[in-house]
User: Fold these one by one.
Assistant:
Number 1:
Amino acid sequence: MPWPLPETDDARLRLAKGYPYAAPGASYLYRDGEAVPLTADIGPAVLQGRVPVIAHGSNRAPEQIHRKFSHLSGAESEIPVTRAVLGDHDVVYSAHMTRYGAVSATLHAAPGTRVTVFVTWLSEAQLPRMHETELGLGNYAYGRMTGIDLAVEGARHLNAAFAYLSVHGCLADPEADDAPLALAAVPAEDRRHRAVHQESALAVLRDHHAPEAELDGLILTAIADTAKRRRLIETLQAAAVPWEVPGFEMILR
């Protein structure tokens, strides 16, 4: 298991509905469970030799990074996380439910939109752990995005970076044919897609799969029963919007 789930129903529902969790308003350095500002004098040195991976969903948030890397301490736990703006893309919901009951995020081409993301700068030793948490259940593919416009806080500019993208496509907006739903919790300029918060996205998923079901009950059942969660995901596939990210070259799945 990538990281342990809460034991109580209340805690599980908070985890599911809280996605993508709170992200700071500026770049930060994660170390030993704490997030401290990533100042200009720290930044250049600590990024050396690290792999830039775009964090568009929960990996933006210190609490999610802690769930995945709490086994590390000291310098081995350090992960610089830089705030950035990605041009011509948006952060939208994936057409699947995670093992912890949330509708998670993926990227989708959106000409003219500038969306706020973060970049996790992972060491070669940390990258396999991130792969384990992202690829282990077969929901994401890891690859390299090239030809992008990624303006990183601190005057850095990247035209290539790595990312995890959903293999399930995008959750379809029931109010707009062939359009995905964007994450309202992720800021964007000139957004072309309708944006909703997590609980509304979960309701869309519920309406696709079992419109008569009570939402909290469906979430808890899907968390507890892997087979039922997989069937739920299967019902979303016919209506899913294929994701479009030009320049993405898959490396691992």
Note: The chain has one domain: 9-252.
Number 2:
Amino acid sequence: METQKAALSTGVHIEYSLSGVENEETLLFVHGLGPNLHQFEPQQQFFARNFRVLSVSLRGHGGSSRPINPTEADYTVQKLARDVQALLSYLNIEKVHYVGNSLGGLVGYELLEADPDRVSSLTTFGTTAELHSSRFVVWSLLTAIRLLGRRGMAWLISRTASEDKAAAARLGKMYRVVSKDALKLITKNIDDYDYTDIIGKHDIPMMLVKGGLDREINANLDSTLEVLSEKSGCRIVELSEVGHFANMEKPEAFNQVVLDFVVACGTRRN
């Protein structure tokens, strides 16, 4: 995967990969907390045959830069979404089919709210639109980050992130290059949120891909599923044998689900 960097008006340099067919619709893939654009290599290869494909590394992740002496305000989901919005402007991309994993899904909600005309459709996986974490859970995560550091977290992720050992090992490699500040400050910013109003009020095609083995997210999906089930043009698809990282664990099944959805949006015909 060839990557480039863009110096954005938001003050950071964002790593991205853009490939595929010129003048075709663009699919944008955004990773979760810890990984980077390399999470979507299988999708870049598959969709570039017929689409334009853009993958990004959020600030503090992969080859993207990070703010100097950052605070929580530098790593809000809104700031991450503004980076993505600025990158789309930099690349002169007017509309995207957005696909986000976990934190990347939250960034998609923020982009939809800030710039709805940019988003042709929104797909999330490993994401819940509403979460209210206990203080103990947040404290435990922050303590693990503080004690283990980036390398220790990479080791832990490589052994626990997925039942697919190959996928877990790749995730561990990506965690080795994430900023410790990004892990810590983003964790603080996503412990308590509710995007159900946003997904409820915007009238675009949406899809939620539910991993059957993604137990933590599934335990917090009720309100998200309720809102989506009441909207026309929305899909809820379950892949029973995948966890939090469906695109890496079962790439062929994931790719087909996304392809079918994008085609069904009506903006692309076979």
Note: The longest helix spans residues 135-160.
